[in-house]
């Protein structure tokens, strides 16, 4: 193939690729535009006047995960209702609130608040069981309040154990404890469809700790599309 013909082939391929990418962007823009229209209608119906929806990330790429901001005068309950209404729009893959400095509601960003709670609180269970200790009621109340602004995202609850005992038993116990925490959060008003429970037994010890260390018995929370928050130790005696 002559150099001229080769250059024409390359140019043609580049033109086809550019046209394909442009068509994809146009279809994506139309799709996201319709999502934005429906989401704005859901926001208005839920009483979210003043809430802004961003359907692009910081690099300008379109996304199905809108970031909400504004609504300075809205109560936490209203913000929660608005987020849930937007998340329910078919095609929306999850929502989150932007971190803002525009009022008390904005300071209740769920990731930061849960981390602060878990620095001084722990979720406890009765020995070798998935029954929540009564002492866990208060921290669970606080965790639920902190998670409400993230309604619409997927919140993962993961149970861990130390390496003592039988691995299969530890795996089942860690899942049962995560399910117990999930149920407790649902009872406190966090929508069940946004909560996922998982148990990993002793397979993921705290970095730097002996796998047999009781501090590995813990519940971890993470909010999808955000960094995992600090784990809370379970602090129970006995196996697991």
Describe what you observe in this structure:
The chain folds into 2 domains: 16-97; 109-233, 2-Layer Sandwich (60s Ribosomal Protein L30, Chain: A). The longest helix is centred in the first third of the chain and has 43 residues, at 3-45. It has helices spanning 3-45, 76-87, 110-120, 137-147, 167-187; strands spanning 51-56, 62-70, 96-97, 155-160, 195-199, 218-223, 232-233. Residues 6-26, 101-108 and 235-239 have low confidence and may be disordered. It is 41% helix and 15% strand. The strands form 2 sheets. The protein has a 4-stranded mixed beta sheet. It is elongated. It is an alpha/beta fold. The protein has 5 helices and 7 strands. Helix 1 (3-45) crosses helix 2 and helix 3 runs antiparallel to helix 4.
Order the strands across the largest sheet as they lie in space.
5-4-6-7
User: Unreliable segments (pLDDT under 50, ≥5 consecutive)?
Assistant: 6-26, 101-108, 235-239
Round the mean pLDDT to the nearest integer and report it: 76
Number of domains: 2
Number of strands: 7
CATH topology-level name of the largest domain: 60s Ribosomal Protein L30, Chain: A
The biggest sheet amounts to:
4 strands, mixed
Second CATH tier, the architecture of the largest domain: 2-Layer Sandwich
Question: What is the distance, rounded to the nearest whole angstrom, between the alpha carbons of the first and last residues?
Answer: 70 Å
- Shape category: elongated
Helix/strand-derived category reads: alpha/beta
CATH homologous superfamily caption of the largest domain: OmpA-like domain
Count every helix, treating DSSP H or I runs of 4 or more residues as helices. Answer: 5
- CATH class division of the largest domain: Alpha Beta
Q: What is the percentage of strand-forming residues?
A: 15-25%
* Topology as a string of helices (H) and strands (E): HEEHEHHEHEEE
Overall helicity:
40-55%
């Amino acid at each position: 193939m002559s150099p001229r013909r080769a250059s024409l082939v390359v140019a043609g391929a580049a033109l086809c690729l550019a046209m394909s990418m442009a068509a994809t962007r146009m279809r994506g823009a139309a799709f996201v535009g319709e999502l934005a229209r429906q989401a704005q209608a859901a926001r208005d119906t839920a009483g979210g006047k003043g809430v802004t929806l961003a359907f692009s990330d910081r690099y300008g790429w379109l996304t199905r995960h809108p970031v909400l901001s504004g609504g300075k005068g809205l109560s936490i309950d209203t913000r929660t209702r608005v987020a849930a209404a937007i998340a329910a729009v078919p095609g929306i893959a999850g929502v989150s609130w932007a971190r803002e400095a525009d009022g008390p509601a904005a300071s209740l960003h769920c990731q930061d608040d849960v981390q602060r709670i878990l620095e001084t609180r722990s979720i406890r269970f009765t020995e070798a069981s998935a029954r929540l200790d009564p002492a866990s009621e208060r921290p669970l109340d606080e965790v639920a309040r902190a998670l409400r602004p993230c309604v619409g995202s997927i919140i993962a609850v993961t149970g861990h154990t130390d390496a003592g005992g039988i691995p299969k038993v530890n795996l089942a116990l860690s899942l049962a404890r995560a399910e117990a925490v999930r149920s407790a959060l649902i009872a406190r008003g966090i929508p069940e469809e946004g909560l996922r429970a998982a148990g990993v037994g002793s397979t993921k010890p705290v970095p730097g700790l002996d796998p047999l260390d009781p501090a590995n018995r813990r519940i971890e929370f993470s909010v999808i599309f955000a960094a995992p928050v600090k784990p809370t130790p379970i602090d129970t005696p006995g196996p697991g």
